[in-house]
Amino acid sequence: MQHQKKFIFLSLSVLLSLLVIIGMQNYTLADSTGVEPVESEDEESEVDGSEESNLDEEESEGINEDVEGVEPAPDREEGEGPFENLVIKDATMIDGTGAPPEGPMDILIEDNVIKQVGNVEDDILENAEVIEAEGMYVMPGFIDTHAHIGGEAQGVSAEYVYKLWLAHGVTTIRDPGSNNGPEWTISEKERSANNEITAPRIYAYIYPNATDFGEINNPDDGREAIRAAKEMGADGLKLRRWDPPIMEAIIDEAQQLDLGTITHLEQTVVSPEYIPNMSSWGLGSLDHWYGLPESLFEDRVVQDFSADYNYSNEYDRFSEAGELWEQAADPGSDTWNNIMADLIDDGLTMTPTFSIYEATRDVMRVENEEWHEKYTAPSLQDFFEPSTESHGSFFFDWTTADEIAWKENFDLWMEFINDYKNNGGRVTTGSDSGFIYRTYGFGYIRELELLQEAGFHPLEVIQSATMHGGELIAEEHNNPVDSGVIREGMLADLVLVKENPLHNFKTLYGTGIERLDVESGELEEVGGVDYTIKDGIVFDAKQLLEDVEEMVLEEKEQQ
Questions:
Q1: d(CA 310, CA 103)
Q2: 392 and 523 co-located in one domain
């Protein structure tokens, strides 16, 4: 847990409190074989947990209480539609399949479904709501496959988070862990499905022991807990730390019940066999990369931990994680290729979330990004600041050597992900924003840029952000694909922009870019998403950003 770091500047009272917490944790570990007791101990606790200590106690006891202080979204006032007939007229279409742009194209939407792609007849146009999109680009709505709705620790409301996502074209998210409480997230999911709130479509993935079932001590308990999760209305499970027999039973039961599975393994349980085994059992997606380089070890079976390493010290955890890929097999080696082939054959999806780790290779770049001033809430900025208390805020003594190691780590990690894609593996786009200086929405666009840096063609980046996310969600729930591409019969989730994203993904940031007008010699601001369409409802993306800016200003005035 983040509170457990032992630094000499902590007061005696805090140290005594830490000893009590450590004792409770050790009791849970010893008393409950196989139980996943400390969600906050993951490298992202996520770059995943909210208020880690509260979540730890609740999850280890199977308690299912709402997290206090997280404000649900208000009833929807924004957006127009859905319409009986809506036509996007004369756009250049990037359809999400990897096909090159095509246009001008018309898209006819009836209610919330795409009914026609091509030239729409005049008699239909006469009775339709029309978006004149000549010179604009239309894409499928973006899917963020690793997106936390925020939490009490970040101090932001759901409205703030949702509007930032929609303002950046994100129309669907998977919330891994549902850290605001399973019922809270499932309620928001249902409200979004009914378009009662201004929000993306939500898929709620919960921890197996966050149901009313209670402790999980054996495989049968695991199966019962998954049935309880299904009954609650969860869409999937997030898996972190379980003994292999329990993990296998959980994954198997989830598959039988059409529930998705995400893993973010903790360094305390990874081994060279764990990810390949989970993949063979039917794991849906590996988020981040924990356990992946370990599966490529050739001359060791555990990470080369330093003698004074303490997993509860986030500086130790993140700094030494930056050395992991160098301990793995070389790119192109038999081990590299064979493990990759096995994972691809199993159908395992990779969701790398590069952007959440970028500060490890250049913290000054990330903490000074231009959108923080207008769009990062003060409470969220406070959460980001170096601290021994807040998760992911471990930059209190981050060194040049740490950044050099992480740059090399990124190179190898990106090479594996690009090879995975090139060999037929599915890669989706997840941002994990709300931690480590990553503001919601903006962090997602940065992930697109980093996929391109990894070697993806811009069309492959869009494919990852749209079609592959739609395929993964449909496959995990044994449903037909209904989103992620622009095709007749698909949901009307779309993004409209004036600038060509294939030329420059930076134009998708809400802040846009400055570009020189060569004729006038003056700089002009261009870019940003213009319209986000979710379920046939048209949202003015720039207005949503203005709403967020007002929220931030109001919070600053109250300080």
A1: 56
A2: no
Rounded Cα gap, residues 504 and 515, in angstroms = 12
Distance CA(20)–CA(4), nearest Å, equals 10
Q: Which residue segment(s) compose the domain that 131 sits in?
A: 83-140+488-558
Q: Express each pLDDT in 468-480 by its tens digit.
A: 999 999 999 999 9
User: Domain boundary at 440, 455, 476, which?
Assistant: 476
From 449, 476, 503, give the residue that closes a domain: 476
Contact between 484 and 140 (Cβ < 8 Å): yes
Amino acid 20: pLDDT: 36
**167 exposed, middle or buried (CB, 10 Å; 0-12, 13-18, 19+)?**
buried
Instruction: Read off the CATH number of the domain in which 129 is found.
Output: 2.30.40.10
Helices and strands in the chain, H and E counts? 18, 18
Tell me if 429 sits within 8 A of 444, measured CB to CB.
yes
pLDDT tens digits for range 19-40? 333 343 333 333 333 333 333 3
Answer yes or no: is 48 within a domain.
no
Q: CA-to-CA distance for 358 and 351, rounded, in angstroms?
A: 15
Interval 223-243 mean pLDDT: 95
Secondary structure (3-state) at 172: strand
Q: 154 and 136 share a domain?
A: no
3-state helix, strand, coil in the chain (%, to 5): 40, 15, 40
- Residue 258 near residue 282 (C-beta atoms within 8 A): no
129 lies in the same domain as 152: no
Establish if 34 belongs to a structural domain. Answer: no
What pLDDT sits at residue 27? 31
Total domain count, the chain: 2
